[in-house]
Amino acid sequence: MKKKTIRDVDVQSKRVLLRVDYNVQVDNGRVVDDMRLVESLPTIRALRDAGACIILCSHQGRPKGVDHSLSNAPIARHLTQLLGIPIKMTVDCIGPEAEAASCALNPGEILMLENIRFHAEEEENDDEFSLALSRLGDIYVNDAFGTAHRAHASIVGVTKYLPAYAGLLLEREIDYLSRVTDDPERPFGIILGGSKVSDKIGILEHLVGKADVICIGGAIANTFLKARGIDVADSLVENDGLAGARYIMALAEHTGGIEIVLPSDVVVAFGNAEEGHVRTVSVAQVPVNWRILDVGAGTVQSFATALQPVKTVVWNGPVGLFERQPFDRGSLAVARILSELRATTVVGGGETAAVVNRAGLASRISHISTGGGASLQMLQGKSLPAVDVLLDA
Fold first, then answer.
1. How far, in Å, CA of 50 to CA of 6, rounded?
2. Rounded CA separation 365/231 (Å)
3. Fewest 10 Å CB contacts: which of 182, 242, 285, 316?
4. Is 391 among the domain residues?
5. Are residues 113 and 241 in the same domain?
6. Catalytic residue among 196, 210, 311, 364
């Protein structure tokens, strides 16, 4: 990473304003999935060991003003359990009370600010709000990869007033995703799913010249299949993406040596997909008014065969409607394929990370990103505002 990290600064007795991404699901005051909290612990512990006074800054959801159902208080309670030390909490993220609380911290103590998005100025990257936030710290550290693609006050604006460094999680995310986008060890495989073709076309345009095999599933595969002249019946298709799909397939053919693997068989459903209205068919035989909702077993085997030789692989997007059974089988099978490869395996955040976690295979993946939007932006070859503003190494 070409930016300064917490290893490059003395934080002894300094107030460190630490931007984290704790935007996680909370149900009845309890954190449902603490992956993002757990991933931030190495940075927090490193700062505590170095004698820093830590002020945690995060958002929750998309509140319109103060919304107590989106308070950071449950996050603070869960973090207290994870760290085994009390986490103090403020009633606001700026102002006299927050400033006094940050100044009262002793080395090793942690303070959590209330939801930064209770203020509309956060997403507006307001300068006065950024200045008010900067009064809470002596040093700024960004460890919030999940929001690294946002030019918000706590991500970008505050760096005008405080020296800015990367945390260990942000550093790890950038290093792994750069390994994929800049110079992947070949053979290099790409697995793409999800529904938005426009997002994936950007990835393919950026990486197709480096790829050896590209496996495509999910709703975006429907668009590629239709672009090849295959009737996908009532399946979700992004008609605006047909030209982009044709372009990518033509580019792969022109470049040579790039294998694009599209579904050969699919799981289809009719209506509400009740019993008797789900079946596996060839892509050439999708019944009228039926919808493709997952890849079939034959397609999974084709993916496995094509990916067997790879040394690096990146996966972004489920290959079926994994939120509903039985349409999660293809995505879970892809997770198993990755877990068995002797390769550097990188999984994009969001839904793809959820698939791997549900499969219980997270420990067998080289890197699971904590940020869906940010990882998508990096895979498209775009810079991240949060990283651009950090001090250069």
1. 10
2. 36
3. 182
4. no
5. no
6. 196
- Measured over the CA atoms of residue 237, residue 241, residue 247 and residue 249, the dihedral's sign is negative
> In the prediction, which pLDDT does 196 show?
85
Report whether pLDDT(275) > 70: no
User: CA separation (Å) from 314 to 39, 157, 256, 382?
Assistant: 20, 32, 20, 17
- What span, in angstroms and rounded, lies between the C-alpha atoms of 56 and 248? 43
Distance between CA atoms of residues 1 and 390, nearest Å: 11
Q: SS3 breakdown of the chain: % helix, strand, coil, rounded to 5?
A: 40, 15, 40
Please give the helix or strand (H or E) that residue 225 lies within, else none.
helix 218-227
Number of domains in the chain: 2
Of the residues 15, 19, 36, 117, which is catalytic? 36
Spatial separation of the C-alpha atoms in residues 290 and 279, rounded to whole Å = 10
CA of residue 219 relative to chain centroid, distance: 19
Q: Please indicate whether residue 189 is annotated as part of the active site.
A: no
Catalytic residue among 202, 350, 371, 372: 350
Out of 146, 157, 202, 373, pick the active-site residue: 373
Range of the domain at 44: 6-172
Q: State yes or no: is 95 an active-site residue.
A: no
Active-site annotation holds for 382: no
Rounded to 5 degrees, φ, ψ at 220 are -65, -30
Give the end of a domain, one of 125, 149, 172: 172
Whether residue 196 lies in the annotated active site:
yes
Query: How far is Cα of residue 200 from the mean position of the Cα atoms in its chain?
Result: 14
Rounded distance between C-alpha atoms, residue 98 and residue 92, angstroms: 7
pTM (predicted TM-score): 0.92
